[in-house]
Amino acid sequence: DKGPYQHYMLKEIFEQPGVVAETLEGRIYKGRLLEESFGYETRELLDQTRQIHIIACGTSYHAGLVARYWFEDIGIPCMVEVASEYRYRHTVVPEGTLFVTITQSGETADTLAALRGAKDKGYLGSLVVCNVPESSLVRESDVALMTRAGTEIGVASTKAFTTQLVALRLLVLAMAKRMGYTEDDLRGYIEELHSLPRQMEVVLGLNESIEQMARSFSDKEHALFLGRGPFYPIAMEGALKLKEISYIHAEAYPAGELKHGPLALVDEKMPVICALPNDPLLDKVLSNLQEVRARDGELFLFSDQEVKIELDKYQSLTLSDIHPSTAPIVYTVPLQLLAYHVALIKGTDVDQPRNLAKSVTVE
Ligand code: F6R
Q: Which domain of life does the protein's organism represent (predicted)?
């Protein structure tokens, strides 16, 4: 039932504050991580974990790429790879490595095959971040950390992605404890997670402005998404959403790579979309965007109240009350809405894009 919404995708985008809160339920309380909720077996595995290999496909892979920044921030080496490549490589598995898969459906063929193939490679064990309790990946993994996004019907994954990031954040905090962070050190991060549903509500309030912005895309054939740091995988996710539902060719690039090639594509017909959070790389991104403007590229920016943008021409929307540890999750929402509205204007089948299936159970 779509309720008042025209499409499942829009309904699922708007469900995000609720399902994020659901995913946190019983796992954090009053600034504390309730580790007991992970179960004994998971905690034992985490006690021995020194590094992490994350394997997934598509949107779930992007969640893994964001988590890599988070794990590395607390001193845990982390490798992330798409399942279809990982399966056919001879991975070197250092001692104390946890094998982590991320999958909404728990049935993705390549991810499942990667898990099966990992069994005799010397991993400590396997953990799956999954949304479907009775799925194959949950059954075959040693332990599971469930997202509670509820059934996702739109083929383009939205609420599954943001709840995956929330689950991964919980995992990062559990590992942070093991890396010597005290409860006091973690309190701020846990509060940031706690306030995430409220922050997402604020972004959802920008829906109509994003719809306005989307009008500039209706005649575009290409789009470039830029980002740096954890916002690079968010740019990848924004580009994937746009291409799969609006059929506009979209590419994501780390902003610093622009002048190593893709800048040649930029002219007045090229929309460039970028999340501009207030983070240590801000000045670098701004100077990358200056290069886009110098070639007449059209800028569409999502930014933070605290950021001063000094560029000669751009469209922007300002987000407020953003916290660094959860910012990638918050900044995902406007990109989902942008893709949705562009698709709506183009008249494509939003919930059931051509050539795609919700669960990819063949290789
Ligand atoms: C994109 C999308 C796909 C899936 C991918 C993995 O919007 O939904 O890229 O993320 O097929 O699926 P799961 O997470 O079920 O393993």
A: Bacteria
Cβ atoms of residues 12 and 358 within 8 Å? no
On whether the CB atoms of residues 96 and 48 are closer than 8 A, the answer is yes
Classify 273 as helix, strand or coil.
strand
Residue with CA at minimum distance from ligand 1 atom 16 = 103
- Cα distances (Å, whole numbers) of residue 40 to 24, 35, 130, 143: 18, 9, 18, 10
Confidence of residue 317 (pLDDT cuts 50, 70, 90): very high
Residue pair 186/177 in contact by the 8 Å Cβ criterion: yes
Query: Ligand 1: which residue has its CA nearest to atom 8?
Result: 157
**How much is the pLDDT for 321?**
78
Looking at residue 292, its amino acid is: V
pLDDT tens per residue, range 157-180: 999 999 999 999 999 999 999 999
For residue range 28-42, list pLDDT tens digits in order.
999 999 999 999 999
Torsion over CA of 114, 120, 124 and 130, rounded to 10 degrees?
Answer: 20
The four Cα atoms 155, 4, 196, 322 give a dihedral, to 10 degrees, of 90
| Amino acid sitting at position 305 | Q
pTM of the predicted protein model: 0.97
Q: What angle do CA 18, 70, 38 make, to 5 degrees?
A: 55
- The secondary element (H helix, E strand) that includes residue 113 is helix 109-118
Instruction: Fill in the DSSP letter of residue 131.
Output: S
Would you call 207 helix, strand, or coil by DSSP?
helix
Q: Which residues contact 235 (CB under 8 A, 6 or more apart)?
A: 225, 226, 227, 252, 253, 273, 274, 275
Residues with a CB atom less than 6 Å from ligand 1 = 57-60, 103-105, 108, 111, 156-157, 240, 244, 359-360
pLDDT at 349 over 90: no
